[in-house]
Backbone:
């Protein structure tokens, strides 16, 4: 049933019966007429995005300006690349960039593996009444702000009253001052991120699996395939487009760290800064005093631009391997 | 689906999911326990999974003015219902269009959408657009309009809908159905799990929104529950991070349920999930019924 | 190393801000009023304009919602202002613990959408940053035309404190502008009673925390406390560590509200030549060495370097610790011990022990709250806004109404000029009285926590305070924003452990190296150049 996909993948040029005889404009008009109905369906969203996202995008020029409230976006003076200097001249630019990328890479890998795995397991028990309990409970952390997560984590890790140190003491070991021990924090932060997000991403993959045609599974069972074989050869490949889309989207934000996770959860402890400082926390610490909105915009633009390049690159690689999985 | 009966492997799956659920639930037990505990005990002994000095003080502290809270819930419910409905509709429309392999502008439209996920103009132009040009400042639409479309949801929707077999659409086209008709009669019914997922995302997004409200809303009657809870949260933070101020206001730090109230706020925010999600969930179970349609 | 954090273009709120601003708020909360002897009603220019000009007034509301009878109060306020100056005011309180206010207003100012009067301070929506961003109007000519009354009631000393390179940008509210450098020490409410009784029995004779004015005396006190209560930690601190008050070492801080390792030595008088700005490394070394010594003796909590201020307060509230120290502008003043300090709290006042200003209260301008006028305000409203500020600062009836609401409903009069808040049923929240104007023009609010409060003491301090010779100088940070940002990032990694005594002095050289790499010397040069120019212009 995938057979007819290939012949329609003609891209923006559309199907052209007599390309030589028609002018470019006319060909485009033909393409448009052919796609008119679908275009009109997408029009409301296109207009919304134009107004809500593209119009305000003129604001990126703030990154190159010394912004004055009274002068506004267009009236403020240009300063070239001056707003970028504080980040790139800083002693920590490399460390925070490295931390940001490594953590986000870990989040993408662990997040995807856990979510897909859980979705597969849930699919196996999809008729069970307990499933709703599992799913609902796993969604709950989404509503807990990082500040509250930080309180809960402190409840476990506090030197004096922490539950974890009670356990450590019970085992006869020396209590650990967790907030001064950087070596544990990569694990703790990845765990916190998984805990807060995995419920939601599992739901996406689970819905993706539920959206598949059940006849595939029925046929496979008839053929005597095991659960593992079904998962590996049918389920995962069938939701692979979803996995790849979410992966490409995640790559785009790999330079953009979750501020709340990295600022609040480690208590902004200075002893942990080598492993918990990420770009967004660095920018916050640097600009909270005297920073201008131009400087904040500059780092934001840098993060977006790098993310954009990475996405184009990833998408290009995906297209080389499997065209139908690419995002665009 | 593989075997309906009780097998060892099913038990193993349930055990795994059960353990994970417990891992997710323990922090919430902690949250609820803290919210029900006596603040003095918490200060003296730290957190515990079992409430000590059982009290509802934290909840009473938050519900001091039930009239305001009720109204705020009303605003939030309106925003969530209207916002989610419009959001699902818009998202599905464009998500469907770019999922069609035969759509000529598929790639350029996807890029057009995706680009906005990475680049934004920041707060200043957004604020100007909303207040000066769209005139949405201090209206209920200020909380609805900005969240109507997310590139992320659109692309997730695309991921779902690209699994709808092309042949169904082709055959409908051969029968002379318009794209409009195909979308409403064929695609929408097929896409219920996708709609439900995006619906859950969107609904939770509208439900937990407070920053736009903080920026745009001044009218007391339009304050949503999350902004109200945010204010309570900030007030508690103010008290806890500065006992001098609390003392100056004549507040006994041990009597005010600071941590307890903060945790009770979590219950207020997350609690409705327990109602909302099971409601939406039946759409998942329905699953896709392409087989029946094809037949 | 203090205060005035700004949150701009970064919408997430932080505890950090709360910590900084709240110490000042506590002071503000107790700030109250003593009615002036003569009435100055009518000092504004009376206009019989048929259509009154409407002016917005933005200020933070330290509550969850707008007061229930906000509209009635506003109507009553408008009856007065329309009659007196032909101005209608639209009061716009922004609820939310003070955190929502700077978030909302900074965006409104950046987009030019805020018009009218905007409340500002050194610690929330910091006025120097807003002036640098050109968000506020210069007020000199408006004050000259419509603000003669408020010039009289406020006095030029404090009005000048709101000057940015010679131009006044805000009208101060004259609460506690001056202070005594002080280790922000307290004895917890739960412990105080027992401690008070036992303090006398401490080895080494009678100790009264209120009479401890030097670091050695404080040290001896802490050691004795630790001996008496070995299980308790005498001094608890967290995020930001303790506060270094350069005045106790005989230095004036050059900058307030920004990253500030720049100081000027105190002198009885300065000539025409500008004093030299230094990094005062010796002072810093001395302070860190002392703290680390305390830390090693177990007088400071072991996790002082990594817990937040909130957590430090929670620890303190357990009663395990005796004294608590957190960041902040010092809140209590000499003479207030008897009247202004809440029950159960015993302040430890550290006096200036070096230099010529021995024991005097000081005024540096970094504790001020004020009202400015947004730059985007149209001309007729600018005039009206200044008239309104003038009236609030001169008309006690108007000030009391806007600050405290209605008698009997919101407060009860217990003396000719003093009131208590009606705890239950009050429909107008009174914690905001210091946001509107000269608090000394209004009633004195008393509360169970401050039964003997009197504004006179504070007024006395304000008027006898020695003003820092640097008041009125403001550093234009634009040319060195890059360096200041990098310095702030370095400090975020170093300040807490250094100022909590966790790090030994030997680590200081590493910190200084990082600060220099971030551009500290560049900033020092730019600062010196601007400072010298300013000094020469103002000391002719």
Residues:
């Amino acid at each position: 049933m995938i057979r007819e996909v290939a012949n329609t993948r003609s891209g923006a040029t559309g199907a052209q019966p007599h390309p030589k005889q028609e002018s470019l404009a006319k060909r485009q008009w033909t393409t448009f007429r052919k796609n008119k109905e679908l275009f009109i369906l997408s029009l409301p969203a296109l207009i919304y995005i134009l107004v809500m996202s593209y119009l305000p995008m003129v604001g990126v020029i703030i990154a190159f300006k010394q912004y004055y409230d009274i002068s506004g976006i267009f009236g403020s003076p240009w300063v070239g690349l001056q707003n970028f200097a504080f980040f790139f001249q800083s002693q920590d630019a490399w460390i925070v960039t490295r931390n940001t990328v490594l953590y986000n890479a870990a989040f993408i890998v662990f997040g995807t593996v856990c979510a897909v795995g859980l979705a597969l397991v849930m699919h196996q028990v999809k008729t069970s009444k307990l499933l709703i309990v599992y799913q609902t409970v796993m969604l709950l952390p989404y509503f807990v702000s990082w500040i509250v997560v930080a309180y809960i984590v402190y409840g476990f890790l506090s030197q004096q009253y922490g539950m974890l140190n009670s356990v450590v003491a019970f085992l006869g070991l020396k209590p650990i001052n967790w907030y001064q021990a950087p070596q544990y924090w990569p694990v703790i932060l990845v765990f916190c991120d998984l805990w807060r997000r995995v419920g939601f991403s599992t739901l996406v993959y689970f819905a993706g699996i539920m959206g598949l045609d059940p006849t595939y599974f029925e046929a496979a069972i008839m053929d005597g395939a095991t659960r593992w074989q079904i998962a590996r050869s049918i389920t995962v490949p069938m939701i692979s487009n979803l996995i790849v889309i979410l992966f490409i989207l995640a790559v785009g934000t790999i330079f953009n760290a979750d501020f709340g996770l990295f600022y609040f959860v480690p208590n902004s402890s200075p002893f942990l800064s080598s492993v918990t400082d990420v770009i967004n926390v660095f920018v916050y610490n640097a600009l909270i005093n005297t920073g201008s909105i131009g400087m904040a915009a500059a780092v934001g633009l840098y993060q977006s631009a790098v993310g954009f390049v990475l996405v184009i690159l990833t998408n290009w690689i995906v297209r080389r391997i499997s065209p139908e999985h690419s995002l665009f | 689906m593989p075997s309906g009966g009780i097998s060892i492997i099913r038990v193993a799956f349930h055990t795994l999911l059960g353990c994970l659920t417990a891992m997710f639930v323990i922090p919430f037990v902690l949250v609820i326990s803290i919210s029900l505990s006596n603040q003095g005990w918490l200060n003296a002994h730290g957190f515990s999974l079992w409430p000590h000095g059982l009290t509802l003080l934290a909840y009473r502290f938050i519900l001091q003015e039930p009239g305001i809270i009720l109204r705020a819930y009303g605003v939030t419910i309106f925003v969530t219902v209207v916002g989610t409905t419009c959001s699902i509709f818009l998202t599905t429309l464009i998500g469907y269009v770019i999922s069609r392999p035969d759509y000529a502008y598929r790639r350029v439209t996807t890029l057009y959408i995706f680009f906005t996920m990475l680049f934004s103009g920041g707060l200043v132009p957004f604020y100007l657009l909303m207040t000066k040009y769209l005139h949405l400042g201090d209206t209920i639409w200020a909380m609805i309009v900005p969240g109507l479309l997310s590139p992320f949801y659109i692309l997730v929707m695309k991921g779902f809908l690209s699994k709808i077999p092309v042949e169904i659409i082709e055959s409908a086209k051969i029968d002379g159905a318009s794209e409009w008709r195909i979308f409403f009669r064929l695609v929408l019914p097929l896409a219920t799990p996708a709609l439900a997922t995006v619906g859950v995302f969107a609904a939770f997004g509208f439900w937990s929104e407070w920053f736009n409200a903080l920026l745009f809303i001044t009218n007391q009657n339009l304050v949503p529950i999350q902004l109200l809870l945010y204010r309570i949260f900030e007030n508690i933070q103010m008290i806890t991070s500065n006992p001098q101020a609390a003392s100056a206001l004549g507040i006994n730090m041990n009597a005010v349920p600071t941590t307890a109230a903060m945790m009770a706020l979590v219950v207020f925010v997350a609690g409705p999930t327990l109602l909302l999600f099971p409601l939406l969930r039946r759409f998942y179970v329905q699953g896709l019924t392409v087989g029946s349609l094809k037949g | 190393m203090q205060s005035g954090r700004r949150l701009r273009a970064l919408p997430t709120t932080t505890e950090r801000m709360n910590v900084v601003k709240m110490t000042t708020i506590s002071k503000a909360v107790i700030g109250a009023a003593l009615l002036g002897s003569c009435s100055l009603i009518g000092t504004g220019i009376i206009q019989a304009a048929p259509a009154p000009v409407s002016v917005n007034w933005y200020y933070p509301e330290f509550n969850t919602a707008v007061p229930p009878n906000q509209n009635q109060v506003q109507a009553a306020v408008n009856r007065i202002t329309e009659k007196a100056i032909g101005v209608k005011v639209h009061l716009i309180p922004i609820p939310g613990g003070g955190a929502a206010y700077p978030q909302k207003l900074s965006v409104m100012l950046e987009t030019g959408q805020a018009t009218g009067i905007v409340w500002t301070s050194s610690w929330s929506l910091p006025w120097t940053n807003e002036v640098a961003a050109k968000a506020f109007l210069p007020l000199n000519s408006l004050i000259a035309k419509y603000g003669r009354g408020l010039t009289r009631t406020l006095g030029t000393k404090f009005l000048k404190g709101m000057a940015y390179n010679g131009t006044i940008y805000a009208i101060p509210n004259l609460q506690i502008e001056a202070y005594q450098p002080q280790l922000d020490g307290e004895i917890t409410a739960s412990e105080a009673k027992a401690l008070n009784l036992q303090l006398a029995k401490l080895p080494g004779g009678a100790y009264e925390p209120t009479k401890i004015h030097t670091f050695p005396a404080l040290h001896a006190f802490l050691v004795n406390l630790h001996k008496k209560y070995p299980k308790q930690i005498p001094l608890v601190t967290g995020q930001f560590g303790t506060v270094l008050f350069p005045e106790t070492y005989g230095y004036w801080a050059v900058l307030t509200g920004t990253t500030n390792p720049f100081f000027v030595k105190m002198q009885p008088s300065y000539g025409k030549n500008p004093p030299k700005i230094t990094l005062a490394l010796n002072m810093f070394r001395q302070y860190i060495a002392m703290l680390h010594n305390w830390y090693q003796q177990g007088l400071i909590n072991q996790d002082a370097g990594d817990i937040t201020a909130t957590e430090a307060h929670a620890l303190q509230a357990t009663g395990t610790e005796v004294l608590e120290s957190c960041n902040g502008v010092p809140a209590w003043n000499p003479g207030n011990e008897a009247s202004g300090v809440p029950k159960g709290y015993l302040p430890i006042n550290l006096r200036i022990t070096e230099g010529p200003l021995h024991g005097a209260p000081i005024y540096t301008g970094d504790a001020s709250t004020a009202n400015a006028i947004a730059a985007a305000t149209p001309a007729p409203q600018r005039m009206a806004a200044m008239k309104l500020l003038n009236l609030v600062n001169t008309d006690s009836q108007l000030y009391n109404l806007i600050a405290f609401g209605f008698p009997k409903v919101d407060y009860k009069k217990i003396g000719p000029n003093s009131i208590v808040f009606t705890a239950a049923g009050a429909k107008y929240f009174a914690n905001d009285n210091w946001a509107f104007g000269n608090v000394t023009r209004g009633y004195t609010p008393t509360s169970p926590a401050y039964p003997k409060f009197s504004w006179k003491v504070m007024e006395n301090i304000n008027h006898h305070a020695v003003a820092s010779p640097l008041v009125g100088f403001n550093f234009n940070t634009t040319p060195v924003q890059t360096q200041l940002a990098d310095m702030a990032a370095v400090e975020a990694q170093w300040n807490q452990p250094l100022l909590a005594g966790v790090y030994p002095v030997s680590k200081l050289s590493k910190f200084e190296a990082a600060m220099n790499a971030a551009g500290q010397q560049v900033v020092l040069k730019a600062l010196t150049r601007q400072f010298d120019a300013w000094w020469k212009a103002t000391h002719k």
Q: What stands out?
A: Chain A touches chain B through 108 residues (CB under 8 Å). The CA atoms of residues 17 and 206 of chain A lie 43 Å apart. Chain A is about 65% helix and 0% strand. Residues 1-16 of chain A have pLDDT under 50 and may be disordered.
